[in-house]
Amino acid sequence: MRIAINTGGGDAPGLNAVIRAVVLSADNRGWEVFGIESGYDGLYSGDPDGVVRLTPGSVRGITHLGGTILGTTNRGNPFKVPRTLPDGTTETVDRSGDVLAGFHKRGLDALIAVGGDGSLRIAAELAKQGLKVIGVPKTIDNDLAATSVTFGFHTAVQTAAEAIGRLHSTAESHRRVMVVELMGRDAGWIALFAGLAGTADVILIPEIPYDLDKICEKVESRYDDDDGFAIVVTAEGARPVGGSGTYVEEHPREGMPRYGGVGERLAEEIEQRTGRETRSLVLGHLQRGGAPVAYDRILALRFGAAAVELAAQGHFGCMVALDPPHIHAVPLDEAVARTRRVPTDGDVVSTARALGVSFGD
Ligand code: F6P
User: Fold this and answer.
1) Do the strands 318-323 and 326-331 form a parallel or antiparallel pair, or are they unpaired?
2) Does residue 72's CB lie within 6 angstroms of at least one atom of ligand 1?
3) Is 296 a catalytic residue?
4) What's the confidence (pLDDT) of residue 74?
5) Which of 71, 89, 140, 219 falls between 20 and 30 A from 298, CA-CA?
6) Are both 2-151+292-324 and 154-288+343-354 of the same fold?
7) Catalytic residue among 11, 117, 141, 201
8) Which of the four pLDDT bands, split at 50, 70 and 90, describes residue 11?
9) Ligand 1 in contact with 304 (CB < 6 A)?
10) Torsional sign, CA 217, 192, 338, 261
11) Count of CB atoms within 10 A of residue 293's CB?
C-alpha cells in the first residue's frame, strides 16, 4: 500500500512519535509512506515538497522531539481554503475535491490523519467523500471523549506543574499572589491536573464558573497578617458565574475563538479586593513545546502502529482510541461528536477539594 500521513491543528508533544511509528510499521509491511506538509496544504500548494516520501531514515531519532516534522496549521480546512481576490478581499473555496484528486494522482491508497477535534471533523467529512481515512487523536487539551486520554496532555501537565512549582519560591519571598493562566480551550483538564500537581490554592476551570468573593476568601486564608502567599491557577477558558470567557479574538475570520487575558483580569481584581500584591503570567505555548514525556511517547507510538494495523485490516473511517488497557477503533463520526470536559463530581476535583483547594465556587 501507499499511505499518506498529515498533522493538523495545534501541535502537541508526541506528533513525531506517531509519524515514526506509522512509517516504521508501514515500512515493515513493505508499504510506502508519504507525508503531507502542513495539514492538507501540501496537496494543493503547488510546492513540489508538499508531499514527501517518508522512509525509516526520515524518522530516525524523532520520537523524543516536540512539534511535527510535517508542519501543521490551525487554518488547514480543505473545505474552506482562503483565497485573496484581485480587489484584495478574501473568500474561502472548497478544495476537498483537490484532496481526493491529489490522492488519486499520486496513487495514494489511504490517509492517516493526526489531529484534534477540528482536524478529525475534516477527516470525517473527507471519509464521507470516499477517502480511506484513519484518525489519530491529538491534543494537549485532552478534550476528545472517544479516547480516555490524548497524547500531548501529560507533557503539557508536566510542563505546567513544573512552572507552577517554580512560582512558589517567588510568591513566598514577596508574599504575593501569583496567577498563572494555562491552555485547554473549553476544557479545564490541564489546569486541574497541573494545579493539583503544582499545589495551587485556587484552581479555576471553565466547568466551574467562579465567584470572585470566594477566590478572595481563599486567598486571604493563605495569609497570616502580612506573612503568606497564594497560587491561583486558571484555565484560559475560565469565566465568572453568569459571565463569559476572556478572549484575544472572540470571532476570528478563520479558526476557533482564541481565549486570552483571564489571568491578568483575575490578578487585577484580586489585588484590588484583597490589597495583596498580585502578579499574573501566561504559560501559553510553552505547554505545547518540548520533548514528550515517556507516557506520551508510548501512547503516540501505540496509536501510530494501531493505525497502520487498521489500514492493513481495511478498517477505515475510524479513529484509534485508548480504552485502557486496550487501543481500539471508534467510528470517526462518533469520535468527533463528543468532547470531554472535566466532570465536576469526578475524583480529581473531589481530591483537590479534600485538600482544601478552592474552585472559586
Ligand atoms: O488546542 C490546543 C491549544 O493549545 C489550545 O489549548 C489553545 O487555546 C489553542 O490551541 C491555541 O491556538 P493557537 O496555537 O492557534 O494560538
Assistant:
1) antiparallel
2) no
3) no
4) 86
5) 71
6) yes
7) 141
8) very high
9) no
10) positive
11) 21
pTM of the model: 0.96
Instruction: Summarize pLDDT for 223-278 with one digit per residue, the tens.
Output: 998 899 999 999 999 999 999 999 998 887 766 789 999 999 999 999 999 999 99
Class of domain 2-151+292-324: alpha beta
pLDDT confidence bin for 219, thresholds 50/70/90: very high
101 Cβ contact list (under 8 Å, min separation 6) = none
pLDDT of residue 4: 98
* CATH 3.40.50.460 fits domain 154-288+343-354: yes
Of 211, 237, 217, 271, give the one whose Cα is nearest residue 342.
237
Domain boundaries, the chain: 2-151+292-324, 154-288+343-354
307 φ/ψ angles, rounded to the nearest 5 degrees: -65, -40
Comparing CA positions, the residue from 58, 52, 51, 49 lying closest to residue 20 is: 58
Q: pLDDT by residue (tens digit) across 160-208?
A: 999 999 999 999 999 999 999 999 999 999 999 999 999 999 999 999 9
How far is it, in rounded angstroms, from Cα 126 to Cα 120?
A: 10
Closest Cα partner for 142 from 299, 313, 2? 299
Q: Is residue 185 within 6 Å of ligand 1 at its C-beta? A: yes
